[in-house]
């Protein structure tokens, strides 16, 4: 391959995806606005382009501070390079080499006499200006690059000024294709400033490289008016297409993108140079561009190319550059993760154990997969649980990870740290004890605009939205450290995103979706809930909102919760593949009564509908839907009992006269007491307490008491009265109680296990102690009719749950059975889920994505 960047040929050669270091394109990728600009102007392609590229020339003139009459747009600078030898009426060319090989090819096509001016390695490839002048005794076209490709050396403008002035019979073509990548001060040193002074100077600028538009082709030439007219008259009409004109017009005026690129490339270049220099086998030459020329001593550059391509790494073999032998190669500066992969591959080729990086040595990332969602409640958590169980079944030591979870459903680890319950469930699917590293950041909303922020299992305070945004980079550092620590202990990690990664207002400070996937170097799958409708539009729309680096992460789509014949979806899958180039890798059916806890209160409030008990006359249990409900999964075991209907209640008209009323946990008890009072539910519950059973868990327990005080402003401060159904008083303490607990239910004698998560310190007064912890402390109070406890998971115990249900039956003079009718065991649910997903998803492709 005479040029770099032939990605199709490189992929065929490697037999896999390739990280292309052979083409020196902006590592940031195209500007974020590119897709929108293309979409907005796509209909314009039905018309011929502006033959004069008027808007584009005006934008270029403004950006480079030249006159519009001095600008020649072209279909890439290569079009200009091949045009100029034909139209300048000069039969001799002087080319400083090694250089871009098309200078020579263009001159050969026009049968020019070519004089090569060697750039010597002993002179560090610097141009010898005296030697150049000695070759200019005959009118010549002089091809020079600033910086040179492949050496990366800049010209001395002062020296060249003298040479150009002394030889007006020669035409100097200075190719500045890569100048924008030079360090900030150097990039300002352009020959463009001299075109007004010299009639024999043409400066070329490529936009395709800097703006990552290589496939569109766009370049410009700057010259005096006469040369500009000659070039424009000689180029074919409509040389620059409509989309290139529109995109180029916006690109050259995007100063933010230019500044970001300059800073980014410099940082990545410096680190990559340091890494390459750590290999004794390599000589690394100083560069002022986004590529680095190197020399290898232990093998030929062709052999090095062949060995690296097997690792999915493509370098530019420079043996076809004039005056370079078969020991030279060039690498583009890419992103640090890509640069690290190059260094890792070189390490394997050279047999070097440790190599330079910012962390002293480069460690290959643990195989991983990220599940992103088209929306909240798309089923990401369940799919992660399924994949964890499948990998476990296949003998792979796997762990789940979610960097940030916003949920009121939390869990306490064995060592007393708080994390999202969803990750605890995923840990169970992986046959692991819940580990705080699996969910380092937990947000527990306590108002419409604020949350309690929990970092590595401990609360760091309540933050409103803007406060948390400022804290996010700190939070992300915790998340990255947790991921690195967790991934070092396991063979694979299944990551979960949050909500939608396409929320453009949140993406800049995202720490849980694509930015986390990028850090983990994790291929990603986009999950959509087809039961909601619009899934394929969501797939494509989401993909369109992604920046180019995010699209590279997405390897496929997954349809979740489908009811029907999956073969009916094939046309839609083909459409998605045609539009995005990515496959739909599976269709997971709707799983009725799966028996696994829901992830968050969104699911709770949307889907927790009344269930018909199998028995003819089931118990009617009303669960009050508090606005700040937390740990609603406490009631999951009741939903599968055949003699129970559990229904959500939001209003007094919904309440009716149930057999039992339950008050769940709350993240804002003061706010929820206000809701109960204003809705009339408080009075109704008090009225029904005379003849119905009332139960409160955690915050619900506090609500049943006489009062609640908040001296430390945990929930907004102040004191409020409770429902006064149990003689207890609660004060919210600054420190949160986080503990796994075992207790005895005093009346029945049954042992119950779970965990406590609360700020409340509750005085029982003369209230009967109902749940006694193993250390003797009471964590619940009341009698058979009205009681509460701090113990989350109290209904998980089969014996106690059946005792509670039967006690309700007895109070209503109904028949009942002493035997356990439902066992709350998640293991069968995990296995059923894993089997369904395994049968519905292309697991071979998933393992291939992960590199397992």
Distance between the termini: 32 Å
The secondary structure category is alpha/beta
Radius of gyration: 34 Å
Mean pLDDT, to the nearest integer, reads 92
Question: How many beta-strand runs?
Answer: 38
Per DSSP, what share of the residues sits in E-state strands of 2 or more residues?
15-25%
- What are the segments in which pLDDT stays under 50 over at least 5 consecutive residues? 354-361
Q: Biggest sheet, in brief?
A: 11 strands, mixed
Proportion of helical residues:
25-40%
Molecular shape: elongated
Helical element count? 30
Q: Can you describe what's shown?
A:
- There is one protein chain.
- It contains 30 helices and 38 strands.
- With 852 residues, it is an alpha/beta fold.
- Strand 20 and strand 21 form a beta hairpin.
- The two termini are 32 Å apart.
- About 1% of the residues have low confidence.
